UniProtKB/TrEMBL annotation:
SUPFAM superfamilies: Tricorn protease domain 2. This is Transducin/WD40 repeat-like superfamily protein. Residues 30-71 are annotated as: Disordered. It comes from Oryza glaberrima. It comes from the Eukaryota.
Length: 489
């Protein structure tokens, strides 16, 4: 967008080794990825070999077999219709915010829903809150006229929404965090929220990262090369790590992997307890001297290492056992999602999704699930809490493209596809070519219904954000026009 060139933008990155959200400042970058929600861990685990795998309750990893969960059931999505339409923009915006670029319609980049409130964040930095019961906009979350909101995080520990923002008053140079209970937002009492991490200097390349698997917040102050860990439940400071040689810290259930600056032919690594920062293991990983590192990722006791034009290595850090996956079979993905419930990981590469196990075997290839967006923008992907279903904004199937549109041109709209992660089968979809898909009729005497100006086809065009509310069994989509649509049965 032309109005962003004068200021650093905040990019939201999906560090998909855990359910966590990282936000940092970087010149000209926009929010890129969103994590799928995860459950809270039931306990803290200190030993590398005995770690919680990120579920809401303890249970062994599921085998890679067809799931019987209700989430995979096509009936759950049967008779989905377009129920509501919310507009993030209207004439009131001019009176509330002073920055002209906040007045312009931009695409929805993130949707979060909690307690019957839907939050829609536009790329401009404007964020609207809508009441799902009354279908009215409650308020804008920009409480200062020069506030540009860059990221949202729902903290289930205290049922509050954390906004991460930048401000014109300090030339958009540092991140500011604020927490507001959902109940206050529902009543429009935004001023009853309070700022977080005020003592931290979050100037570029500093960041804040929210990890709801472990219930922790990680901040990085670039000024003094200090990482700090806070408790997500009460925001209490826990401990800090100060070392200029740290290149990156990655979070997994129960632990943090500290990656140090690469030496000539190896990279020093350290595993710390997430609870108190205690070192659990220190080791080095050999590397090819002349190859760039594509990624180093940690999952339970497994370390995944991939260098350019080299095989994928899966190393067991307990006994150094090594599994290699040929580089012709495993292409470097643009994003990962680690599925702690099922001991699998998803890779996203060239609009395709695949599920792998930690023996380096391809477990699932997905039928009829070609992602619409080539840049693997995980704003358009949702994975259910049981991690058995993936919901994405997809291209129309090949059969439809071959027969549809004028002279075989693919329709300009995509579909919302629900696929079983274990079988790869598409179990349901919301498609513009479905003759039964309509705008749900207004019930007699229902005054809460919003006005829907879009057609079903319009609402499925250029979807830029997607969220599935598992409690309500509703899908919320946002598009390039700044509109939010509700799909349910």
């Amino acid at each position: 967008m032309e109005h962003h060139h004068h200021k650093p933008g905040l990019r939201v990155r999906l560090r998909i080794t855990a359910a966590r959200r990282r936000a940092w400042l970087s010149a000209g970058l926009q929010p890129a990825c969103r994590k799928p929600p995860r459950r809270d861990p039931s306990d803290s685990v200190h030993k590398v070999a005995r770690r919680e795998i990120g579920g809401g309750h303890r249970r062994p990893p599921r085998p890679a077999a067809p799931s019987s969960s209700a989430f995979s059931c096509p009936e759950k999505f049967r008779n989905f219709q377009l129920q509501e339409e919310y507009d993030t923009y209207d004439d009131e915006v001019h009176f509330l915010v002073q920055l002209p670029f906040l007045w312009s319609r931009t695409k929805i980049i993130e949707i979060v829903a909690a307690k019957d409130v839907i939050f829609a964040l536009a790329q401009s930095g404007l964020c609207g809150a809508f009441n799902r019961a009354t279908n009215k906009r409650i308020c804008y979350l920009n409480i200062s006229p020069d506030e540009v909101i860059r990221s949202l995080f729902y903290n289930k520990n205290n049922e509050s929404l954390i906004t991460v923002s930048v401000y014109e008053s300090d030339r958009f140079s540092s991140l500011k965090c604020r927490t507001t209970p959902i109940e206050y937002i529902r009543r429009g009492q935004l001023n009853d929220g309070f700022p977080l991490f005020e003592t931290e200097s979050l100037k570029y390349p500093g960041f804040v990262e929210f990890d709801d698997v472990n219930g922790k917040v990680l901040t990085f102050s670039a000024q003094d090369s200090t990482y700090k860990v806070f408790d997500l439940k009460n925001y209490n400071f826990l401990y800090s790590i100060c070392d200029k040689n740290i290149q990156e810290i990655k979070i997994s259930p129960g632990i943090m992997l500290v990656i140090y600056q690469k030496s000539a032919n190896h990279v020093p690594l350290k595993i710390l307890s997430i609870e108190d920062g205690t070192p659990l293991k220190t080791f080095t990983q050999l590397l090819h001297r002349s190859r760039k590192v594509d990624f180093i990722e940690q999952f339970n006791e497994k370390l995944l290492v991939k260098q350019d034009k080299e095989n994928l290595q899966i190393i067991d850090v307990r006994n150094s056992n090594l599994i290699e996956v040929n580089k012709t079979e495993f292409m470097t993905p643009s994003a990962f999602i680690f599925l702690y419930e099922n001991n699998l990981f998803l890779t996203f590469c060239n609009r395709t999704v695949a599920a792998w196990n930690f023996r380096g075997e391809l477990v699932t290839s997905f039928d009829d699930h070609e992602l619409w967006h080539s840049n693997c923008n995980t704003n358009n992907i949702y994975i259910t809490a049981d991690q058995d279903l993936i919901i994405s904004y997809c291209k129309a199937s090949k059969e439809v493209r071959d027969s549809g549109g004028c002279e075989g041109i693919a329709p300009p709209t995509g579909s919302i596809n629900m696929s079983n992660i274990f079988t790869g089968k598409c179990v349901a979809k919301i498609s513009p070519l479905d003759p039964t898909l309509t705008i749900a009729p207004r019930k007699r005497g229902d005054s809460s219904r919003s006005t829907i100006r879009s057609t079903v086809s319009d609402a499925l065009e250029d979807i830029t954000a997607l969220f599935y509310d598992e409690d309500r069994n509703e899908i919320y989509t946002g598009n390039s026009k700044g509109l939010v649509h509700v799909w349910s049965n």
